[in-house]
Amino acid sequence: MQKPLLIIGNKNYSSWSLRAWLLLKAFNIDFDEQLIELFHPSATAILDEHAPTGKVPVLVYGQDDEKVTVWDTLAIAIHANDYLTELDLWTGLKKSDTDAKSDTSTRINSAYCQSIVAEMHSGLTGIRSEMPMNIRATAKIQPSNACLNDIARIEDIFADCLKNRATDSYLFGSFTAADAFFAPVILRLQTYANASGIVLKSTTKQYCETILNDPYLQAWREAALEETRVIKEDEAGEILSVVGVLAD
């Protein structure tokens, strides 16, 4: 099979691109990546060719009548789980592990993982709109009740998933799609929470450390800090400091 190509946006800003990229990396799916500039004319030809919605990320592979095109991060996760990996994205376990498939706790975790991934995908719009991902910035905002309610809901999810787990655990022990889908939330909290006086629970802080220490997340962040473009549409609040090449 031809190596898949993942088309993504600017790493400093594109949260949905990060989710898809992190998923493929974490589940050992070999792929090429092509970065386009968000909201820039240079991206038009690539998006016209590959992205029916004109948005990233998009996963493509194959040629002509056998070309496969998958757009939307959740669809990429489902497709990858079905066709591109021997691991189950919802549990982190090997699909060949028949004992795990028949285990009730595994099914419960899989259902929980799928549910919170879908909740992140379709909801939590308060935090997503008021705290756009901006990896290189520290910024102060005045969060609305909707944003604070979303943060409270996210903290409840983290606390429920991590109870009785090791302090450095992912949400379901092994890395799953849920960790990839909530990774941009961790980066948002790093950018805005402390600067905006938002107090986080100890469980949330520990999980933030776990995700921020993930080697793939660190590689994405390092690449983001090398970017020079500022996209006004994705800048929010009072920028207190900037790291990376823009800080020079």
Short descriptors:
248 residues; 4-stranded mixed sheet; two-stranded antiparallel sheet; 46% helix; globular
Helix and strand topology:
Blueprint: E1 5-8, H1 15-26, E2 32-35, H2 44-50, E3 58-61, E4 68-71, H3 73-83, H4 98-102, H5 104-122, H6 125-130, E5 137-140, H7 145-162, H8 177-192, H9 202-212, H10 215-224, E6 238-242
Parallel strand pairs: 1-2
Antiparallel strand pairs: 1-3, 3-4, 5-6
Structural class: alpha+beta
Helix content: 40-55%
Taking pLDDT < 50 over at least 5 consecutive residues as the criterion, the unreliable ranges are none
Number of helices: 10
Strand order of the largest sheet: 2-1-3-4
Oligomer: single chain
Give, in order, the helices and strands.
Answer: EHEHEEHHHHEHHHHE
Our estimate of the beta-strand percent is 5-15%
Mean pLDDT: 95
Radius of gyration, in angstroms, nearest whole number: 18 Å
Quantity of strands, as a count: 6
Shape: globular
What is the CA–CA distance across the termini?
44 Å
Largest sheet: 4 strands, mixed
Task: Describe this structure in a few short sentences.
The chain is α+β, with helices and mostly antiparallel strands and 248 residues long. Helices cover 46% and strands 10% of the residues.
Any overview of this molecule?
The protein is globular and about 50 Å long. Helices cover 46% and strands 10% of the residues. Helix 1 (15-26) runs parallel beside helix 3, helix 1 packs across helix 8 (177-192) and helix 5 crosses helix 8. The chain is an alpha+beta fold and 248 residues long. A four-stranded mixed β-sheet has the order 2-1-3-4, with helices on one face. The chain has helices at residues 15-26, 44-50, 73-83, 98-102, 104-122, 125-130, 145-162, 177-192, 202-212, 215-224; strands at 5-8, 32-35, 58-61, 68-71, 137-140, 238-242. Helix 1 links the parallel strand 1 (5-8) and strand 2.
